[in-house]
Structure formats: structure tokens, C-alpha cells
Amino acid sequence: MKKTVLVTGASAGIGKQTAIYLAQNGYTVYGAARRLENMQDLIPYGIKSIRLDITNEESVQACVDQVLQEAGSIDILVNNAGFGLEGAIEDVPIKDARYQLEVNVFGAMHLTQLVLPTMRANKYGKIVNISSVGGKVALPLGGWYHASKFALEALSDSLRNEVRGFGIDVIVVEPGATRSEWGTIATDSLLTISGHTAYQGLATKAHTLFTRLSNNIQEPIEIAKLIRKGIEAARPKTRYVPKELNSRVLLEAV
């Protein structure tokens, strides 16, 4: 029987590629994102698109309700929706820092809470949380982003031990730099937020470095393959890490 997968952040990057790749490999896939218009190219693959604002409780509930009504279950959840903002901790407005945590942490965990009852009833489920190498090493000018990913890592570890007895696996995927519009947005925010403050020198140096490194990053398909490997493993690893740029090199360079 085909498994049903819900992939968030499916309008671009890792989310879109994962939705397509899993659909091509026999899964029933629902792609969810705020920008419904950016998911029209998923239709030829048989992927159903849902408009989802991960920070809005009613939108999250409606998304889960629609999938359960149409498919009967959500067997696999890929929490990929994410938001990244770079800048010195002192410079990032608290409302923006709060939004980053709302998307990367609370939104993902609210969605997880809503899919767990059906998974428990079915005695089967896979929760895939897309973290980052930035969930293990914190670099300067990314403090709020790192905080969100460190939190996601901790919640994943706690959740794994809570739901294992119900036949549910919790899998963390930790990409390094991956080609997507997110990377450009995050990097450009460096100069917008800290390019004219006491941290100008550090921000300018970091921006130059990240721009240079942007030509040597992973493609989203590599992460999609890791996700499939994790959800199809009889006993999945707790974490899947692709070949990535060593974070120590970045830290020393900055």
C-alpha cells in the first residue's frame, strides 16, 4: 500500500525536490507552502498542493485535516519549511527573531502534534525534521537561526524516545549549504541588518566568504535521496548528514 507523505516548504529548494523525488518513487505526496502559485509545477507528478502558513494555527489544522480526509492517513511528515535570517544577535529585531523560531520550531512541532494521533493509531509513522549543520555548530552572525535548529535537534531527540514504542521513527537530516533561494535571502540579510552597525566589518567579510562558497554547495536532490534512505530504512539512523563543507573552516575564515 502506498504511503502518504506531507512535505512542508514544497514551493522551492529541498522541499520541492523531495516532493518530486518521493512522488517519482511510489509515494502519495502532498506539498504544502504559503506560495501555492509556486507549486503548480508539482501537478504533473501527481502531487497535491496545499496552501500552508506554518505560523498560523488554523492553517496548520486545515492542512492536516485535508490530507487525512482525502488520503486517510499521514504516514510520513517531512518538516522542511524553514526561515533563515543572518545578522548579529544585537542587531536582529526581536520580532524577526521570534518569527524565525515560530517557523523553524513551533510551526514544525505544532504540525507534528497534529499528525501523531493517527500515526499512533496506525502503529506506524516517520517524522523527518530538516535541521542543519547549523544545528550542531553555531557561527557568528547566525545566532537566531542556530538557536532554532539547536532547539529542533533537542525536540527531535526527546520526541524519538517518546514515540518509539508506538512504531514511530523520528529522523533528523542535517544539510550543509544547499542550493536554494533561502541561502540568498539569508546571506543578503547580513548586510541589510548588520552592514551598517558596529558589526559591519564582520558582516562584510562573512558576506564575501559565503558568496564565494555559493559555487560549491549541494544540490537539493542529494538531500531528497537522504530523506528517502531514512524513511525506507528498517531501523533508520537518528541523523543523516550529507557530504558538506566543514563548519570549522567557515568559523576560522570568519
UniProtKB/TrEMBL annotation:
Cross-referenced InterPro entries: NAD(P)-bd_dom_sf, SDR_fam
CDD domains for the chain: 17beta-HSD-like_SDR_c
Keywords, comma-separated and alphabetical: Oxidoreductase
Signal peptide (residue range): none
Pfam families referenced in this protein's UniProt entry, alphabetically: adh_short (PF00106)
Gene3D superfamilies in UniProt: NAD(P)-binding Rossmann-like Domain
Gene Ontology terms, MF aspect: oxidoreductase activity
NCBIfam families: PRK06182.1
Assigned protein family: Belongs to the short-chain dehydrogenases/reductases (SDR) family.
Record protein name field: SDR family NAD(P)-dependent oxidoreductase
Organism of provenance: Spirosoma validum
